[in-house]
Amino acid sequence: MNRLQASYRIRASAAAIDARARALAIEQSVEMPPAAITEQRIHDEVVARVEDIAADGPGHFRVTLGIAMETTGGEAGQLLNMLFGNCSLQEEVSLVDVDLPEAALRAFGGPSHGTGGLRALCGATARPLTCSALKPQGSSPAALAALAGTLAAAGIDFIKDDHGLADQHSAPFAARVAAVQGAIDAANRASGRQCVYVPNISGGPLRIGEQLRAAREAGVRMVMLAPMISGLGAVQEIAASGLAVMAHPALGGAARIAPATLIGKLFRLAGADAVIYPNHGGRFGYTAASCQDIADAARRPWGGLRPAMPVPAGGMSPARVEEMVGFYGREVMLLIGGALLEAADLRTAAGDFVRRVHALENTP
Amino acid sequence: MNRLQASYRIRASAAAIDARARALAIEQSVEMPPAAITEQRIHDEVVARVEDIAADGPGHFRVTLGIAMETTGGEAGQLLNMLFGNCSLQEEVSLVDVDLPEAALRAFGGPSHGTGGLRALCGATARPLTCSALKPQGSSPAALAALAGTLAAAGIDFIKDDHGLADQHSAPFAARVAAVQGAIDAANRASGRQCVYVPNISGGPLRIGEQLRAAREAGVRMVMLAPMISGLGAVQEIAASGLAVMAHPALGGAARIAPATLIGKLFRLAGADAVIYPNHGGRFGYTAASCQDIADAARRPWGGLRPAMPVPAGGMSPARVEEMVGFYGREVMLLIGGALLEAADLRTAAGDFVRRVHALENTP
Which among A88, A139, A231 has the least Cβ separation from residue B252? Predict the structure, then answer.
């Protein structure tokens, strides 16, 4: 079967929904009146099909389209375009779910490391993982490196750039990455552990290429980027190159795409090994159910794709560790940034975070 | 003055709005508790400031933040990140407007050609411009080239790829571009005119680089891309390289960013010489007022930035030419795709479109 299934929620009357669904199928494929298409093959194999229409609450319907896989070209950005490019401009339409045939999943590739590969990188086979962030932007490479050294010495598994750290004068990418990776390498030599640095990649194609080269030269094994800022296609290419990838949800909240579908499925499909998303109870309004959906979508068996590690973040603190692991289980990376930095003593707070997580080694 | 002004519309109570605005300023800059920031410079120069709060309809407020220009690093994707990265995940917040100091506008660059440069490319100094699209995807390079030849012979100024044409098997980028540019070159030699081909660029950084090389080899002078799919940073880099850029709004409708701000201002700032957006009265729900706002934002004087050409599209037909030019004036590129293809005779319909537009040469 060479079509993917895309499910949309559409606000429309019962009288209008059939025509509306057909129009959506056209919009998300050939984008022209079908009567004007002369090639039979295009009718048979390229034009999207309405596969199902069902009521979905008052005044709303769930429409499932069969979209020809060939229109995606196997490229993640183009997949997003065919799923929700033009209809993103139609505010009565939102994208709810996506399913692809197994062969298509394999063709996209998914995570190159997955949860297992991340565990191998940091050397933690069973327990939940810890992550913190280098902040604030505006700090020098030396300041960020010192912070990284402290966090690594405290036992944090993954240290990411704040997503606001790009290529600014205060800490240009190459200088920052060399300094931070150096500090983390030194901490690892002293501790015997394997803390992993995750610098933030940003910019257009040329700048991204330069940053990836600088990162590799510095010995970086994993990078972060925001697919909705830098392109889902960039995630796919970086995953194919062998670096592990952490996806940040910046600009992703407004997309009118269900969070579990965008973050748990599409980011994973494109190759994100870890997916950050706003945790419930923090600065963002995601519900607990929504967060559970994201984590489930990231981790559940999906064709042959490796599972991606959920990284709930935002408003987390060491005091919530047990609650979070109780909620998500062990296959989670807990990200705590600001709460460590505002503690009276960073080293103590980070150590407390680490200790609480390690104590949950045998949580089911 | 080294801050840009970003205006947001926030749903909040009067009792909560002060704290909410301060939280937004933190979120869109340092993203950590300010009390934990030890460097005075960061407090003074990096943390965003609440510059104004005003009522904006029942239960809503307009909040203006002063965001430090240094946080953008002069890079268009990072600008979008600082404007709306994290708060895109907070559904009560939408981005309404952006203003930058003149020096910052110049630093970003804006369009490298602008409306004047596009007119020079196609040789039409005063009248409105015409554009059509190569459809449907799934067609072979030869079929697309034949269509391009017909449209060019009819006098169309700009011929763009359908935004669904990426790098699929049916018409891989390099083969398609060579065939289409060849057909258009032949038509131009025969007619003495200067029809411009605008292929669609897609993919991650490596693929974009390959496509740009192939495009240049084929003699392409202008490319199209969807900034919300491929990254606003890509627009900026391509503009800096000397190619003209047409921006497609795919995935841009859902962003909770005011269309005039996203399409008319930010796409222009990043370097789009022409900005496509859904025209009122077509398949998309944009109002006439919204369309006027987009066109105004694209064209009005803005620091030293060249104006961008508005390209209203979607549901247009030759019969609407006079209405559209009456609405927008002469500084507009009318895009008609499907309506030409579904006409009884394409050459006649395209010629009718062209004739109607040329007749408006002296419209004010």
Answer: A88
